[in-house]
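In response to reviewer comment 3 from the previous cycle, which asked for concrete evidence that the modeling workflow produces usable outputs, we include below a single protein chain processed end to end. The sequence was submitted unchanged, and the resulting structure tokens are shown without manual editing.
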Amino acid sequence: MTFRYQRAGIDRVAHPLLAEKSASTVGTWSMIGVPVRMTDRLAAVAELWEAHTQAPSPGRLRSVDVAGVSMVLLDSNVAGCVSTWLHRGGNIDDGRWDILAACEQELLRVIPELDDDEAAYYQRLLDMTVLVLKAPDDSSPN
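The workflow returned the following structure tokens.
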């Protein structure tokens, strides 16, 4: 099962496991059509961010590409955008939104190629990415 959402006319597909996690972590969002309260999103992303900053990056991936994606650059792009979103109280500019949208597609492509620990690290990046990209006023089903 996948979950779809949109921003600026770009159709997005969330990772299927995120919806299950979000239903328990972010009380009001389990799929499109059910709006996320901004305070819930901020809290969820802040919690994921804290866990991410405490986790060591997978050593093997510091100098390799997976499926044509630089894993270090992917990590740093998401981290920069998420930290900016958190510091701005849940706001992100269009440029960073576009970066995150591209990163989401890369994460969806590389996560299946990773081992369990590596996948968990990058899954957390995907979870944060999807939560940040979710438009706060998007309540229409697609």
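Residues 1-36, 138-142 have pLDDT under 50 and may be disordered. We consider this sufficient to address the reviewer's concern, and the full set will be provided in the supplementary archive.
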